User: Fold these one by one.
Assistant:
Number 1:
Amino acid sequence: MFPAMSDTRALDRAGEAVDTRQRVERLLYEAVDEVNLGLAADERLQKTPEVVLVGDAGRLDSLGLINFIVAAERRLQTEFQADLSLTDVITSQHQGRHLTLGGLCGTVTGMLERRRGGS
Amino acid sequence: MDPRPLRGLLISDFNVQNLAGYLDNDAGEPRVRAHVAPYGQVEPALLDRGHQVWREDHDFAVVWTTPSGAAPSFKGILEHVETPLAGVLEEVDLFAERLASLLDRVRFVFVPTWVAPSHDRGLGLLDLKTGPGLSNTVMRMNLRLIEASDKTANLHLLNTSRWLTRAGRDAFVPKLWYMAKVAFGNEVLREAARDIKAGLTTVLGGARKLIVLDLDNTLWGGIVGDAGWENLQLGGHDPIGEGFVDFQRALKALTRRGILLAIASKNEEGVALEAIRRHPEMVLKEEDFAGWRIHWGDKAQSLESLAEELNLGLQSMIMIDDSPVERARIREGLPEVLVPDWPAESMHFKSALLSIPELDTVSVSAEDAARSRMYAAERLRREARSSLPSLEEWIESLDLRVEATPLQPSNLQRATQLLNKTNQMNLSTRRLTESELVSWAAGEGRSVWTFAVRDKFADYGLTGLLSLEIENDTARIVDYVLSCRVMGRKIEETLLHAAIIEASSRGAKEVTALFLPTKKNMPCLAFLRASGMDGDEAALSFRWDTAREFPLPKAVRLTRHPPEGRAR
């Protein structure tokens, strides 16, 4: 009838990870809103996981990308009290691969989960 | 306002691309299209008229530099190298001269003041010492620049420190600097964009002139009809009451720089006026209000009716009301009226009022300071009018005196203000800066006259402007401008009389006027049609043969003064 104690903990961790991912996604979308304030209508980013931040299909120029990094880091710092640097995460993608908003969301969620697991 | 976006050139020694984006995306009027001069090219852009940035015309420029970008020896202060203050200030003077020189390429120049980074403590107690102090030197540089801007029309300084305060800990973002050479956090740049837009609204004559106020829970706490004036929350040892008194004081202060007040309230008029007259802590008195509509009818209609009575357009109005329902009604019914969101507690009213950028002004003239009194006098005049049998007799009873004076240094500021602020009785709605007006008036065959009006109730000051351009036998009226404060009292005819006399004395055989329609200047067309001038309705042009007399209205005494010297 009831799951074993170890299964319960696993479920809790999975639930927390989903919750963290949703919060990260919300913060990244808020950062997109902030970046869009300074962009022309045809340059604005959509708020979807598929939107490409870095790569051939990326819509942001280098200043736009830096604005996004600063806006996202500030929100993550306030929400999670976590001093995360997205600079390396994002700029390392310049070496060939492309990075989507959804991909960044997963990476950041993983970073936060690892921090929590390590603490 | 002009539907064409204003073109602005941003010149800086740091990256201001984000500022350009915020200016472009701000949907408020006036619309702006910002162009960024190449990064770090401050001096070439200021000095070199052949620089690539000047290949296109710009309406305004924003020159935003770090202190070292304007005064290179300021670097010595930063690096704690002994640096004579006099040398730094000389460099500020030179920078100010270069800023002034821009005004023959753009109409307005905006310059954000310099700031010391808030994270730099300037070595603590040393920071404010004269000589080596970092903040001390920045303050002195700013004061020096302020003195220079005071002497230069259309060079306007903007207060960067306020933007930093509003941005708080995000005012400086090292990552933005190191990765993109953006010197300030983006919240600072958004505040800058708002102030630049507000500055443009002000210099283009788009500032609001009239605040229409609700009474219950807006000017005082409580419902006067229920509680009685004795029991209103107003003043006393009570934070809510103090909030209302401070709000009233702030409103009263605004009347001293030309903002008019009116009331639109759902109340019994007698009950509400009794509260205004008798409550001992009322700061605003009956005479502070240019008009009121106190009844149980629709407030939107009250506002329209006040606009008509005061001869002001709805786009001149701000409405302050504690009721979200009334605010929504006005926003929907009268979108031209500015209806700010309003805080729930009176303790926030004063700060909400003083943060409305549409109340900004660039200067305060004697006419501005006296405007409230004039409107109060106008109310008395209307009351007097009700006891007279006809409009003509009423006008004749006013003892109207008009003084015509050529454009000259003493009236240049007010004349320019009138030209740029007047919408309704305005033939061509031409907008010019002081220097542009002087420059235009100096042209061959041109003359500009100003008209000051007074009657037995009040002195309205300089309220009319007329400019003529004579070519061959024809005198063309270029500007025909009359403040709404004196409309409908035969001053319109007086200006036309003066135009025809001036044209005739200078040999012109006819006077022409071409009406350029806007959304707001239909009253001017109505006057021209009724004036007796020969009109070509299709072309909206009017003419008068100077051989025919255009009589001065009987009710008006006109005096023409000789010039005291050219305005410059």
Number 2:
Amino acid sequence: MIHVRNVAKSFTLHNQDSTVIEVMQGASFAVAPGECIALTGNSGTGKSTLMRMIYGNYLAASGSIMVGGVDVAKAAPREILQLRRDTLGYVSQFLRVVPRVATLDVVAEPLLAVGTDKDVALDKARGLLARLNIPQTLWGLSPTTFSGGEQQRVNIARGFAYDYPAMLLDEPTASLDATNRETVLSLIKEAKARGAAIIGIFHDQSARDRVADRELDVFIFAPKAAA
Amino acid sequence: MTPLLAVKSIAKSYGGRIGCSDVSFDLYPGEVMGVVGESGSGKSTLLNCLAGHLAPDGGEVLFDTRADGPRDTLQMSEPERRMLSRTDWAFVHQNPRDGLRMNISAGGNVGERLMAVGARHYDGIRNKAEDWLGRVEIEVDRMDDRPSAFSGGMQQRLQIARNLVTGPRLVFMDEPTGGLDVSVQARLLDLLRGLVRDLGLSAIIVTHDLAVVRLLADRLMVMKSGRVVESGLTDQVLDDPQHAHTQLLVSSVLHV
């Protein structure tokens, strides 16, 4: 489902003495449908960078990133947008929403974007919010004023509303209590069971052990020159 | 898929000064593109060239017309282009006073656009105007007031209603949230996003506000000194800018 081949990444800071920071080279791996792989490595080794390149949020310097037949490293913006709508989901650590939009609509939006019937989409959104213990009194309010943990759960509900064939999860269990952590782990297991290919970053070793089929230490992709 | 708008090598200079130079892009149906840059970078010049308000020195603007497919709007006759700007295009000015008639009622402002494309039935026009005022969150009892009695945010929403009532396919926006305070901006952005998605509009939004494009635009073009220096997916350009000028713009944003 996801094939990363020989990907390299560097950042050039033009306004800071044109410093070039080499982050990654020769990154290659693949994720099959129904498989979950966990990216590991110390902070700063490029786990999030790699994930963002797969999502098309960062531009890969070279190599190819095939997700469901689209090469994210070379695709036009509208191809990437379509991929994100139909194929590739991403749960980031931070919720970014338009002000004033109700939580329920925020969660249902990915379903509406693929043309799901409005009632069906809202039902699914209600179900997810209830599972993640967001009090019903909050569903009509904008999540911008929620606590950090609540925002994180809204973000997860939104990420799991539509059944993406491929998913990227950046610390989905961070800052959650035990009950909600369990819920998120079972959502991930359910996604695997229906055949989703998942790449995750989990700082929590026990969470990693429970959902990941294998681990990938991103350190092996560190540029050799820097070592 | 045929692009709704295909722009090829548009150039415009003011005497010896470059307004914009060698700008090309394709805009597909349903796509929203942001154009950002500092003041004087040529973004408004570009928008005005595309919308037919300014005659560019060279280049092509191919619009996928309903009847005849892609046609170069720069080669059209003036009446043809005017008709297109009434039926298929909309232009939202930064200053609502440039896009509204300040001496006729709010309902009249919306109805006038309908009459320009041939609507004649009074009740029909009034009902449609009422519907659109509702969509842009203007209370119906303000329908017979003149825009001069409206706040800046209301005037801007009225301008949007006036522009969208005829069901255009392409909307040009020049700093649509400029000069509004932040709470009014948020409301307007939310409204625009909803309308763009529900009506499947394509839009080109010129702004210097990077937060506005992050919320509204699928794609981004960054201009400097009349040229496009970088373009791509909005979040990619903002989160991983490649060009020195884009890096400068992004790093200059103040976070609250």
